[in-house]
Amino acid sequence: MKTLGFVTLSMLSFINGKRTRNHLPYQIQVCGLVQRDDGSMEEELRGLRRSRPKPPVGGNFTLSDCFYFYRRGIEDIVEDEVTQRFSSEELVSWNLLTRTNIDFQYISLKLTMVWGLGVFIRYCILTPLRIMLASIGLTWLVIGTTAVGFLPNWRLKSWLSEWVHVMCYRICARGLSCTIHYHNRENRPRKGGICVANHTSPIDIVILCNDGCYAMVGQSHGGLMGVLQRAMARSCPHIWFERADMKDRHLVTKRLRDHVNDKTKLPILLFPEGTCINNTSVMMFKKGSFEIGGTIYPVAIKYDPQFGDAFWNSAKYNMVSYLLRMVTSWAIVCNVWYLPAMHQQEGEDAVQFANRVKSVIAHQGGLVDLSW
Hints:
It is found in: Endoplasmic reticulum membrane. The protein is an alpha/beta fold. The protein has helices at residues 2-15, 41-50, 65-78, 109-149, 155-175, 203-209, 223-235, 246-261, 319-327, 350-365; strands spanning 27-28, 34-35, 178-183, 194-197, 215-219, 239-241, 268-270, 281-282, 296-303, 332-338, 368-369.
C-alpha cells in the first residue's frame, strides 16, 4: 500500500503539472550498486523523453512513462524500512574486516599492511583457539547434561543442571571472544517468569545464559543441533516442538502454561519476533508469547558492530558459514539491559501488551520501534 500510494501520487503530481520537487533518492546502476541522484522527477522524465519519439497525437504523456513509475515503485520496495532490517548494519568507519569494506574503497599501503597483520592474528592465532574452546564447551554440555539427566529429580539435580549449563555457555562465549556488559542485574528474570528479548543471532542464547540459566523453547532439529537438544532436555525442562505439527503446537502452549504456573522452574526464554533482525530495530512481537500469562521480564540486547557483526542473515549464510564469520571476527561486544518486570494491565489484550513490551525494549536498547 505504501508503494502503490507513492507511485499514484507521483503520477498525479506529474499529470496535473504540479511543481513538486520529489527528489529521486536512488539510481540503479549496471554494477548492481545503488547510488543517490539529486535530480528531480521532472528533469529525469525530460531526459528520458529526449531519446524517444514524440507521440503522433498531441499530448506529453507516452506509454513508456509508466516504466519510470514502475521502476520508482520497485526501488521504494527494495529500500523500504522493513527490508533494510534484514541486511547487515552499515558502519561509520572500516573495522579492518574484508566483509565490511564495500563502502570503503580506498585502502592505502599502510592500511593494507595493518589489514594483513589483522588477518594473520584472526585466522592463524585467534580462530584455532576459539574453535578449540567452543568444541570443549559443546562437548562438556552434551556430556554434563546427559550425566545429570540420570540423577533422580531432587534439588541437587536442578542445581547441577544450572551449574553445567552456565559453565558450558561461558566456555562457548570465551570461544567467541564475547565481551558482555550486563546492566540492572537486580531485574534479572526469576523462576516462574517469561524472559522476552529482541533477536539478532543464535548467539543471543549464549549471551543471556552466561548470566543465568533458562528453560528454552524452540523447534526440534536433527544432526548436531538435535544431539544438543536431546542432551539438554534430559537435565532441564526445555520445550522442543515440531513447528508444522498443529497438535504439537497446542501441546506446547499447555506445557508453557504449566511451566509458568510452577514457581520452582527456570524462567522461559522467548524471542517474540520469531526471526533475526540486524540489531538496528525491533519488529512486531507475536502475541502468542503474551497469551500464556505470568510475569514478563523484558531484556534488551545491543551489539557493537564495530568489532564484529553478530546478525545472522539466514537467507544468505547457513549455520556453519555464520559461525565461521563469528570466530574470525575481532570480538563480539554487546550490552544487555534487564528491565523491570511487566504485567498485563486490566483491559489490555495480548497485542497491546506485546507492543508495550516491545516499545520498552526498543527505547532501552536505542533501537527503532517498528510496527511491521
